[in-house]
Amino acid sequence: MILKTKLFGHVYAFSSLKEVLAKANEEKSGDKLAGIAAETAEERVAAKIVLSEITLEDLRNHPVVPYETDEVTRIIQDDVNESIYNEIKRMTVAELREWILDEAHTGEDIKRISRGLTSEMVAAVAKLMSNMDLIYGAKKIRITAHCNTTIGEAGTLSSRLQPNHPTDDPDGIMASLLEGLTYGAGDALLGLNPVDDSAESVTRILKRFEEIKRKYEIPTQTCVLAHVTTQMEAIKMGAPTDLIFQSIAGSELGNTAFGFNAATIEEARQMALGRGTATGPNVMYFETGQGSELSSEAHHGADQVTMEARCYGFAKHFQPFLVNTVVGFIGPEYLYDGRQVNRAGLEDHFMGKLTGISMGCDACYTNHMKADQNTIEDLSVLLTAAGCNYFMGIPHGDDVMLNYQTTGFQETASLREIFGLTAIRPFHEWLLRMGYVDERGHLTGRAGDASTLF
Amino acid sequence: MQDTDVRALVEQMVEDMLKGKSIQASSDSKSSYAASVGQNNRVEKMPESTDGGQILPDITQIDLRKQLLVKNPKDREGYLAMKAKTPARLGIGRAGARYKTATMLRVRADHAAAQDAVFSDVSEEFIKKNQFVFVKTKCKDKDEYLTRPDLGRRFADKEKEIIKAAYKDHPKVIIVVGDGLSSSAVEANAAEMIPAISQGLKAKGISTGPILFIKYARVGAMDDIGEITGAEVICMLVGERPGLVTAESMSAYIAYNPRHGLAEAKRTVISNIHKGGTTAVEAGAHASGIIMKMLEQKASGIDLK
């Protein structure tokens, strides 16, 4: 393993593979905050050059958090298919990049070698990709998953309807929910971020979601994004639950800070399969986001792209229906501006797909970040071109509970029209029956009028 | 009935405005207009222009909960009743699959207010008028403040001397103001909240000494001040990260014995201090009660019963 290169006559020597991975990142404020970013533009390129000649075997043998001390590393390493790994372990990262981009290799080919990759390899190849490489590579890979309906099929773009309310007022939640449905939002999920993280409140809202789903015969899935243990308690209390949600991190320490471990997630999954309301087999929903490990001091000196890839490696073990990066929520100390948010969004989506999970994106920003609605509209267009499975849908993109901005109902509707896509088939047929879209999936005169559902 | 009339009138005004009906200024009026606008293009003095004294209505005065822009809704009254249940931007209609101009501009305006609250500074005039003692954390500018939370929690030696001098009498309780993530929140609430706190304390015989203003402040800066002054309780008023609904929300973080390494859970927080939430005066009275309790129990945050 060579960790040294010359560039413009200057020698750049790195002390570890972990350092190379960090310095090969595109500029991110979070890596600077962690004190691990490249110090000059040339050093960044030198690190990319060194990384390009590293073999997949070296990356497997040097996980950024040791196998012995971290269960996320153990899950990722133990899930590797050894025969596929043995076929590709001598490849360099440069070769893997070109192998993925090569027209001779289809999405199915990529999904096969994906089983021989660890998250460090997935992160490494993303670091050598330009933004369009990330789109081009991701576009080839199609990942579907089934809960009550199938997400990710060709020709579809989905939306999670996020009807958040500052006090969980049931009528206020229903207001956003009904209007969103008339715009064609909600085929991925009707999913609320609750203010009140109690099992009673979660149960109440899930029952209300179930009523609406039954009343209008809506083919979709429901979830209330409380803590995993709260949702399990709610199931025990008889809450009708399709999907179980949890925010996850790329290290055991990070997951401990979130208040769970792998055993908790497996227990939740078994409970959803055994006592939940969904058809399955995919009954889990995870959210991630670059920088969350550093913010809980659980990054082990590793960079935020590699830690994010490890979230996906962990997620894959539990066969999720949905995984999305909440890319711009964390703030400017991790992703400084629109340029960094968009880069991170493209990286996360590509890495998720290369890992083999059904990937969406909460294309979003906070008000202390140098970004605006144009930033995330750009990102949503780029990600739709990359074959992203779903976005969020919120009234005018303004989340009145979490106080951040994301994509609105109008965004998914526009993206579907621009790219010639529709909602998930059974949901699209429901929209047609209700008269909100035409055959092409374009909005009709009735769309956007919630009072048609009163 | 009257309410609906007013609403209809305002809606009509906005619609007219967007169609350009009342935009009558010709291009040569630009120069006279430019001469009378201040640095931020805020007009200090009304220009003698060719607009015949007309002015476009302030779109931020429209009550969004009462505005329904859906074309021919099936049930207008029902829709408005539903909208009353949530601050979410519902019933906004659309232009194709995109937003209507009025709602797009309103979101831009609300976002602009939020951004300005973050990226502008608390004015020197405000600091002077309230006789705050000015200090600055280790951040050299706003950018560094936003990206280096560690530097926003510490003071350089020169600043430490100012803090030491201000509290040479070693008051038990110190009140400080930090700009945090919203300068407008500080300017809107701090001046009203501080007397409400200190009056409550004075009634119990506790004086607080001068008020410190900290530029580029993170909440953890109070721990450094605790180290420097030895204060028992520090109460920091600080601007919250603005949302689109309000950019003027402030929080008060209060801690007993704040020193380096204090766990976040040991701070007591009063959040959502603004006109539409807890008012500054209410919050001040509440804060003085909490401070008294902390002095009695020698604890704060999760340890405070």
TrEMBL record, chain A:
**InterPro entries in the record:** Aldolase_TIM, EutB, EutB_dom_2_sf, EutB_N_sf
Gene Ontology biological process terms in this record = amino acid metabolic process; ethanolamine catabolic process
Q: In which pathway does it act?
A: Amine and polyamine degradation; ethanolamine degradation
Does the UniProt entry include the keyword Lyase?
yes
Q: Does the keyword Lyase apply?
A: yes
**Superkingdom in the source lineage:** Bacteria
GO cellular component terms attached to this protein's record: cytosol; ethanolamine ammonia-lyase complex; ethanolamine degradation polyhedral organelle
Enzyme Commission designation: 4.3.1.7
Residues reported to bind adenosylcob(III)alamin: P194, Q246, S295, M401
Q: How is the cofactor bound?
A: Binds between the large and small subunits.
Cofactor(s) the protein needs? adenosylcob(III)alamin
| Catalysed reaction equations from the record | ethanolamine = acetaldehyde + NH4(+)
Q: What class of enzyme is it?
A: lyase
Cite the entry's keywords alphabetically.
Bacterial microcompartment, Cobalamin, Cobalt, Lyase
Q: Which GO terms describe its molecular function?
A: cobalamin binding; ethanolamine ammonia-lyase activity
Q: Where in the cell is it found?
A: Bacterial microcompartment
| Broad class of the protein's primary localization | other
Assembly behavior = The basic unit is a heterodimer which dimerizes to form tetramers. The heterotetramers trimerize; 6 large subunits form a core ring with 6 small subunits projecting outwards.
Q: What function does this protein fulfil?
A: Catalyzes the deamination of various vicinal amino-alcohols to oxo compounds. Allows this organism to utilize ethanolamine as the sole source of nitrogen and carbon in the presence of vitamin B12.
Protein family = Belongs to the EutB family.
What's the protein here called? Ethanolamine ammonia-lyase large subunit
Species for this entry: Lactonifactor longoviformis DSM 17459
UniProtKB/TrEMBL annotation, chain B:
> What UniProt keywords apply to this chain's record, in alphabetical order?
Bacterial microcompartment, Cobalamin, Cobalt, Lyase
Q: Assembly state and interactors?
A: The basic unit is a heterodimer which dimerizes to form tetramers. The heterotetramers trimerize; 6 large subunits form a core ring with 6 small subunits projecting outwards.
Q: Please name the pathway.
A: Amine and polyamine degradation; ethanolamine degradation
What are the annotated GO cellular component locations? ethanolamine ammonia-lyase complex; ethanolamine degradation polyhedral organelle
Its EC number is 4.3.1.7
Region Disordered, residue ranges: 21-55
A Pfam match: EutC
Q: Which cofactor does it need?
A: adenosylcob(III)alamin
Q: Where in the cell is it found?
A: Bacterial microcompartment
List, alphabetically, the InterPro entries matched.
EutC, EutC_C, EutC_N
What is the role of this chain? Answer: Catalyzes the deamination of various vicinal amino-alcohols to oxo compounds. Allows this organism to utilize ethanolamine as the sole source of nitrogen and carbon in the presence of external vitamin B12.
Report biased composition (Low complexity) as residue ranges: 22-36
- Family, similarity comment: Belongs to the EutC family.
A GO molecular-function descriptor: cobalamin binding
The record's catalysed reaction(s) read: ethanolamine = acetaldehyde + NH4(+)
Which sites bind adenosylcob(III)alamin?
A: V219, E240
Q: Name one GO biological process term.
A: ethanolamine catabolic process
* Source organism superkingdom: Bacteria
The protein in question is named Ethanolamine ammonia-lyase small subunit
Source organism: Lactonifactor longoviformis DSM 17459
**What is the UniProt remark on how the cofactor binds and its stoichiometry?**
Binds between the large and small subunits.
